Amino acid sequence: MKFLDELNDAQKEAATHIDGALLILAGAGSGKTKTITTRLAYLLSLGIDPANTLTLTFTNKAANEMRERALSLLEGQNIPHPPLLSTFHKFGLMFLKLYIHLINRDNNFVIIDSDDQRKIIKQISSDLPPNFISKEISKYKNSFLTPDEVYALATDSVYKNLAHIYEKYQNYLLENNLVDFDDLLLLTYKILNENNDLADEISDKYQYIMVDEYQDTNEIQLLLLKRLCKNHNNICVVGDDDQSIYGFRGANHKNILDFEKDFNAKVIKLEINYRSTNQILNAANNLISFNKNRYGKKLISARGDGKDIEILRNYNEIAEAEMIAKKIRDLINQGVDPKEIAVLYRINALSRSIEDGLRNYGIPYKLVGGMKFYEREEIKDLISYLRLLVNPHDDYSFKRVVNKPRRGIGKATIAKIEEAKGDKSFIEYIKENDLSIISKKAAKTLKDFVNTLELLSKMSLDELPENLEEIFELSKSYKDEDKARNIEEFYGMMRERSDLNIREFLNELSLETDQDKITMDMINVMTIHASKGLEFDHLFVIGMEEGFFPLNDADIEEERRLAYVAITRARKDLTLSYVESRYIHGKRSPVNKSRFLTEAGLIKGERVELKESSAIKTGSLVKHKVFGTGRVLGINKAGNKTKLKIDFGGSVREILSDFVEKV
Predict the structure, then answer these.
(1) Which of helix, strand or coil describes residue 315?
(2) Partner of 319 for a Cys bridge, out of 15, 211, 314, 461, CB 3.0 to 4.6 A?
(3) How far apart are CA 23 and CA 239, in angstroms?
(4) 569 catalytic, yes or no?
(5) Does residue 32 have an active-site annotation?
(6) What's the mean pLDDT in 247-263?
(7) Contact 218, 250 (CB under 8 A)
(8) CA distances, 425 to each of 392, 422, 436 (Å)
(9) 212, 242, 555, 599: which one is catalytic?
(10) What is the rounded distance in angstroms from the CA atom of residue 95 to the CA atom of residue 246?
(11) Which is the catalytic residue, given 243, 445, 568, 575?
């Protein structure tokens, strides 16, 4: 097995581990992907059936890359079929297609994304902001709380109203056979938890389970993994507790810290870094050493010494942007590939000035994390057309496109049909009735529209673009040239995926992530969160000021982990930038340089302590009348209130400080 010769000792020990739980604690740039893919190749080379392996990731890009790398190591060997590597959510999708009937649901469901979710919520209620409602519903689902339980726990009228909205939202999903992202995992776990025989069957099938980026898992993913490991303990996870930066999405940092105990696991540390120079790693090691809740490891550079880290100081963000733009222009003029240059920031608000600076110097850039392609109006319209072709009962999509392009069907016409149709869908009612309740012209238009959809539904995916455009002239209906180009781009993608049917194509789209869409053909400008997993020869991090990085009243350890992630994206050349003043709440105000510059050993100065509640601090034990005793993981502002992130015996919840007392 020559492929093992390319590994260092720690990587080889991890790759050849077969039975029993294993945590590969992989520092940034330590070859974690190489190690886990080699382990998969090693298992298959021993004659283990690929069908008995399951590797779970967080992006399609990671799953595809790992599959290709593992199979390339086995070139020339007779592998009967490829092993299963997928995202958690795609695994949930495949599982539900086979077993959702066990909870009396049809398997022709359609996945909705966050934009669909917000629009559905808007239809149900305009009392509360849709973003707030969708985030709360997501928390409830991931904590296995039903609407009735949420209502019982509600302490004020806002949360009682929220419980009613949650109930109506759930009913809407059921009536229209829709599934949201949380359901992909929640329903999968529910089915496995309620069907022991099936859980035995699935656990026996997947005898070797691997998980990438384990530090990003949440509570429900942990529970799902425990069900998948019901009949064995052959689970290998790879991750870095120092790169756990998705607490705001529900990721539980404790999952990786407790894995050794939860699964009686062996731990192997990968500490040799093949990405960055000594100067960069020394700063990263110094910085992260200030965190208390960590395993503890120290990255060692395989590259040796390089350039010193540069610290930029400017009067304001305009001067900062100009200085960085000049440096980037000089790099490009020296022959540096633009894709090897990136600018990172902690919050989106900081992107405007750097974008202006790059534009002024004629430097092309890609803003990762701006308006997502699939959430643009024209693309959502086109997706709604496709959804109607696979699910004629999707009233939400019908209402979105029935008058796009304009065909004389107004809100009053739709309201009349909605009142008359009862439990039937719009399309069912239009097909079965003479529509005498509306004008003859509108009735004919709707009948023709429904007949056309029925005709289109029989076409293959690659036949649809030409026919959709010929019949509806979608791209011409938008006056905006960019929107027309976006539609053409989408048509091209449909033609490229002619191996899929319409439903499969839609479900693939729903599983797209930001990382999958990053292209590397120009300067990348992005948040630090969006940069996770990427690396660049020349890296600039702006906004290194107190209140911006770290954010005020944030979980300081997660902020520090985020700074560690930012620093370790750099291979050779790292520049950290701070200014003396920025606009804060509409006014220019002086700012102090970030404590992280001092903690990283890059400048001299006093460490700044995080301002927290005088009564309750991070690490405090608190008591809640329903959830019991828990430990405070973080403190944030919520308007004029203080919101606490509390670990109640492994269940992490966000609770207003008014509802707990210090133990």
Answers:
(1) coil
(2) 314
(3) 8
(4) yes
(5) yes
(6) 90
(7) yes
(8) 8, 8, 17
(9) 212
(10) 26
(11) 243
Active site residue 55: no
The dihedral over CA atoms of 620, 624, 630, 635, expressed in degrees to the nearest 10, equals -50
92 burial via Cβ count (<10 Å: 0-12, 13-18, 19+): buried
| Of the ranges 13-22, 140-149, 413-422, the best mean pLDDT one | 13-22
213 is catalytic: yes
Letter string b/e over residues 423-435, b meaning 16 or more CB atoms within 10 A of that residue's CB: ebbbbbbbeeeeb
Q: Per DSSP, what are the bridge partners of residue 22?
A: 236, 266
Show the CA angle centred on residue 272, arms to residues 269 and 275, nearest 5°.
125
Contact between 285 and 298 (Cβ < 8 Å)? yes
Task: Provide the angle, in degrees to the nearest 10, between the axes of the packed helices 114-124 and 130-142.
Answer: 110
Instruction: Decide: 252 and 7 in contact? Cβ < 8 Å.
Output: no
Residue 213 CB contacts under 8 Å (≥ 6 apart), including other chains: 57, 58, 62, 238, 239
Q: Where are the alpha helices (DSSP H) in 46-154?
A: 60-73, 88-99, 114-124, 130-142, 147-153
Which pair of structure tokens corresponds to residue 200?
A: 């035995």
Nearest Cα residue to 294 out of 264, 265, 257:
257
The size of the chain, in residues, is 663
Choosing from 113, 136, 180, 213, the catalytic residue is: 213
CA distance 420 to 437: 9
Burial bucket for residue 145 (CB in 10 Å: 0-12, 13-18, 19+): middle
Which is the catalytic residue, given 404, 569, 571, 645? 569
pLDDT tens digit sequence for 598-638 = 999 998 764 444 333 345 777 788 887 667 788 888 787 55
Which of 16, 33, 170, 642 is the catalytic position? 33
Looking only at Cα atoms, what is the longest distance across the chain? 81
Does the pLDDT value for residue 516 go beyond 70? no
Tokens representing 47?
């004659």
Q: Which of 11, 12, 32, 378 is catalytic?
A: 32
Determine whether 212 is an active site residue.
yes
